[in-house]
Design brief:
Blueprint: E1 20-21, E2 30-35, E3 41-46, E4 50-58, E5 68-77, E6 82-87, E7 93-98, E8 102-107, E9 115-120, E10 125-131, E11 136-141, E12 145-150, E13 155-161, E14 166-172, E15 175-180, E16 184-189, H1 193-196, E17 201-204, E18 211-216, E19 222-227, E20 231-236, H2 239-243, E21 248-251, E22 254-258, E23 261-264, E24 267-272, E25 279-283, E26 288-292, E27 297-301, E28 312-314, E29 320-325, E30 343-348, H3 351-354
Antiparallel strand pairs: 1-30, 2-3, 3-4, 4-5, 6-7, 7-8, 8-9, 10-11, 11-12, 12-13, 14-15, 15-16, 16-17, 18-19, 19-20, 20-21, 22-23, 24-25, 25-26, 26-27, 28-29, 29-30
Length: 366
């Protein structure tokens, strides 16, 4: 069965892993978290229309709650729910977009951090990614388009048609992966995108139900897809690796109810560790899990937080894992309780939790 209940009428105990709670979080569901490149600056986009930024500092002595402080720095609003946000490589700008169909930019290097509209789609914008090598922002929307923005020229550079609405997107230059409705997955090589405008590969997801998230491997040889059916698929760009059996699917974010029954929850986010190439998944079951795809192992499953985890991201060096605790509407209106938290927590990542482990006695997933 799909997605049983989490929590109840009383206040939710969401910090079950003893992690640091970021102050002044949004008042509604958190749709995305993003880290700056090279610095511990954190941003989030939320259904309360806000986009917020914090500066995170590690404490010299580790006490309770992970040993961090997060100082609120900037906050601004969209006209409708904000769905996505992204820093520029030099951290001078933060872009955001959402249901108002607009891309906004916040100038973090100017006094007062002014914001302005800088791009539009004909429907809500689900994801944006900054490509430093092209000096362009890439946006994917529910209008079935992928747009490239060159803000040096102050204009849109090009628009590519997608087969369906953009639901998921990740970029590690030169690889761009876009997941859309109807299970389409498109892989682009950004080194020749301006010449061809076409994906180098288009596949149908090996998972049977709606795509929720995609994430490119640290070494850029493939990607992982997560779906609403509590499964992840590991895929490779090179056909020879796929045909050799390296690609595989596995079940996750399911709660065993006994008698061969389990509750099945969406896989909401996947993110690969920048150093070790292992990865994290989060789900509507309220758990986050660290995995090793090469040895097909679960490295660590953390305690359930009693509310969905809609998004999460490692920081630039993989030492901090930021995850949101808020309702993700997987149960519709019935799950929208006044007691639902809207929090972002910071987990201090240890090497023992995330580093690849050699399988013992043949290994395999546990």
């Amino acid at each position: 069965m799909f997605g049983g209940g989490l929590g109840g009428a009383s206040a939710v105990n969401y910090n079950t892993n003893g992690d640091y709670e970021v102050p002044q979080c949004p008042t509604d569901g958190i749709s995305e978290v993003a880290w700056a490149k090279g610095r511990n600056i954190l941003a989030c986009a939320s259904w309360d229309k806000s986009v917020r930024i914090w500066e995170v500092t590690a404490q010299q002595t580790f006490g309770a709650a992970g040993g961090y402080t997060a100082a609120p720095k900037v906050s601004y609003n969209h006209e409708s729910p904000a769905l996505t946000c992204e820093f520029s490589h030099d951290m001078q700008y933060l872009w955001s977009a959402g249901c108002d169909k607009k891309i906004k930019v916040c100038n973090l290097g100017a006094a007062g951090n002014p914001t302005q509209d800088c791009g539009t789609h004909d429907a809500p914008i689900r994801h944006i990614k900054w490509c430093q090598e092209l000096n362009m922002l890439i946006s994917g929307g529910w209008d079935r388009t992928l747009k490239f923005w060159d803000f040096r020229q102050g204009q849109q550079a090009t628009t590519l048609q997608l087969p369906e609405r953009c639901y998921a997107m990740d970029l590690k230059y030169p690889v761009l992966v876009v997941g859309t409705a109807d299970l389409h997955v498109l892989i682009y090589n950004l080194q020749n995108i301006q010449q061809t405008g076409a994906p180098v590969k288009t596949v149908t997801s090996n998972l049977k139900m709606q795509t929720r998230c995609v994430s490119i491997f640290t070494d850029k040889t493939g990607w992982a897809t997560g779906s609403v059916e509590g499964r992840v698929y590991i895929a490779y760009i090179d056909e020879s690796q796929s045909s050799s059996g390296k690609s595989f699917a596995f079940k996750c974010h399911r709660v065993d109810r006994g008698h061969n029954e389990s509750d099945i929850y969406p896989v909401n986010s996947i993110d690969f560790h920048p150093q070790f190439g292992t990865f994290a998944t989060t789900g509507s079951d309220g758990t986050f899990v660290f995995w090793d795809k090469d040895n097909k192992q679960r490295l660590k499953q953390f305690k359930p937080v009693n509310i969905a985890i809609p998004c999460a991201r490692f920081n630039y060096d993989g030492s901090i894992f930021a995850y949101a605790c808020s309702y993700d509407w997987h149960k519709g209106h019935d799950g929208a309780l006044s007691t639902n938290p809207n929090k972002i927590l910071l987990h201090r990542v240890t090497e023992d939790e995330i580093k690849n482990k050699k399988p013992q006695g043949g290994g395999g997933r546990r």
